[in-house]
Write a structure and sequence with these properties.
Blueprint: H1 8-15, H2 19-53, E1 65-67, H3 75-95, H4 98-117, H5 122-127, H6 146-151, H7 167-170, H8 175-185, H9 191-203, H10 205-216, H11 219-230, H12 235-238, H13 242-262, H14 273-292, H15 300-310, H16 316-332, H17 337-350, H18 358-393, H19 405-425, H20 433-436, H21 438-445, H22 456-473, E2 474-476
Antiparallel strand pairs: 1-2
Length: 478
């Protein structure tokens, strides 16, 4: 049974903190200060560049947003959710039955995301978000005849192509737009239903990360992460952008892979239908992830970390079979992923990316990452980096026992961080990474579980304040 937290426990832990603990807390605060300086530098230098020549193509660098202080119908709800999660989230996360915690985490993440989105009002914040000229819903009717639309999909990617796709359709494989075509076909058409879909599915990523953490590390560590996954500043962009939905698909793929790689039945033999079904389902979702967004092929790095931590390659054949099934289906339908990606790169540089300076965005993007993950994540990632050498050494079979729960979480966070750095250095993510990097942000948020329990509430409050400021002071473009 999990011990009931008491109000005296954090205070006692703080009183008995040793010099090493105090040094770690100081290092956390220095890391947060460095993150803040990075954001301030990105805002100040970005503003100078944008006013000088307009090459950044964003109104409030480094975010695709505009300065617009406002309140809305979601304001009271957002404040209430923040207060409740900061006040009651940690003890509830420690006490609730596991399945109850998963449902509570999803429900609370839904409440947080909905309330943030409704700060901009129903129409502006949700119903019209996915109906702008750049979005998927503008081309739904062009998919009435699905076969020709898929076979001719790549012919409309370039800006100079006849009837070229709008930016988001051209910038993604067709599974992205087909999601909204499917919703339309079952009677859930229009921007409101699209927004509801993205928020509902997107918020489930919090539960998916919990499932993976419990399987790969241990239950107490997963429980410590839960309130931070709820009060994620990234929720500002989960509600409402299609990338929030993409993030959830990727997160469930990794969660199912973690279950497949770590579950044992029948005397330790990997033969039960449960793990096999989980591996196949993980592969199907992994394939779907790659056909939702070209850049999400980088999710294979956290997937490889999952298998490495579990020391189990048996799920790989079914994982590959599931992913291959999706790829074969789209290929037979007439869509060539590699041709689509080649044309996307050309289209990318036909637009704003052709003038957006790499020298700014290669570090400005990292400031966006700080804003979507928050100060607590910066401190948690700092702790993961400090623990990285020891955790990586213990991955070697010859190094003795494998890393403990915190070490395994460290490796998972490092894999997500590596994916972000590769995406950043590629030059294919110049700006707008506050939504593009959502699938990786969830795994960076998991690093908050490494923070000491005595200071969990102040870190949670900092996360909530950042999200509330972003959504009340800025009008975000997604």
């Amino acid at each position: 049974m999990i011990p009931r937290p008491t109000s005296e426990a954090p205070a006692a832990a703080a009183r008995h903190a040793g010099p090493e603990d105090r040094a770690a807390r100081r290092a956390d605060l220095l890391a947060v200060a460095a993150g803040l300086l990075l954001v301030v530098a990105a805002a100040a230098i970005g503003t100078v560049i944008e006013r000088a020549n307009g090459s950044l193509h964003v109104n409030w660098p480094p975010l695709y947003a505009s300065w617009f202080p406002h309140v809305g119908p979601g304001t009271p709800a957002a404040l209430a959710v923040a207060v409740l999660v900061v006040g009651y989230g940690p003890p509830l996360a420690a006490r609730l039955p596991w399945r109850g915690l998963l449902l509570a985490c999803w429900a609370a993440a839904l409440a947080w995301t909905w309330s943030l989105a409704l700060i901009d009002g129903w129409q502006t914040g949700i119903a019209r978000r996915l109906t702008t000229e750049y979005e998927y819903l503008t081309v739904i009717r062009r998919f009435d005849d699905l076969g020709p639309a898929l076979r001719g999909f790549t012919g409309h990617i370039l800006n100079n192509a006849p009837d070229h796709w709008p930016a988001h359709v051209a910038g993604h494989p067709p599974a992205a737009v087909l999601t909204f075509v499917g919703l339309d076909r079952i009677g859930l058409g229009g921007g409101a239903w699209a927004g509801v879909w993205c928020i509902t599915v997107g918020a489930s990523a919090a539960a998916a990360v919990l499932v993976a953490l419990r399987a790969l590390t241990d239950e107490p560590l997963a429980r410590r992460a839960a309130p931070f996954l709820v009060l994620a500043p990234a929720a500002v962009w989960v509600g409402t952008s299609a990338d929030g939905y993409f993030a959830a698909v990727a997160a469930w793929s990794l969660a199912l892979l973690a279950l497949a790689a770590t579950r044992r039945t029948g005397g330790g033999r990997w033969s039960a239908p449960g793990p096999a079904a989980a591996a196949l389902a993980s592969g199907l979702l992994l394939g779907l992830t790659c056909y939702l967004s070209y850049g999400l092929t980088l999710i294979v790095l956290p997937a490889a970390a999952v298998l490495l931590l579990a020391r189990n390659a048996r799920p790989v054949p079914l994982l590959v079979a599931g992913a291959a099934t999706v790829a074969v289906a789209f290929t037979l339908a007439g869509f060539d992923w590699w041709e689509g990606y080649r044309l996307l790169v050309e289209r990318y540089y036909q637009g704003a990316a052709g003038v957006r300076p790499y020298a700014y965005w290669v570090w400005g993007n990292l400031a966006c990452a700080v804003l979507i993950t928050g100060p607590a994540t910066v401190a948690g990632v700092r702790r993961a980096l400090a623990a990285a050498p020891a955790a990586l050494r213990r991955l070697r079979p010859s190094a003795g026992p494998p890393p403990g729960p915190a070490g395994r979480l460290t490796v998972l966070v490092l894999a997500a961080l590596l994916a972000v750095l590769i995406a950043d250095l590629s030059g294919m993510s110049k700006a707008e990474t506050e939504r593009i990097w959502l699938p990786f942000a969830w795994w960076l948020l998991a690093a908050c579980a490494l923070l000491p329990g005595a200071h969990r509430r102040p870190w949670l409050a900092a996360q909530a304040v950042l999200a509330l400021l972003l959504n009340h002071l800025l009008y975000t473009g997604w």
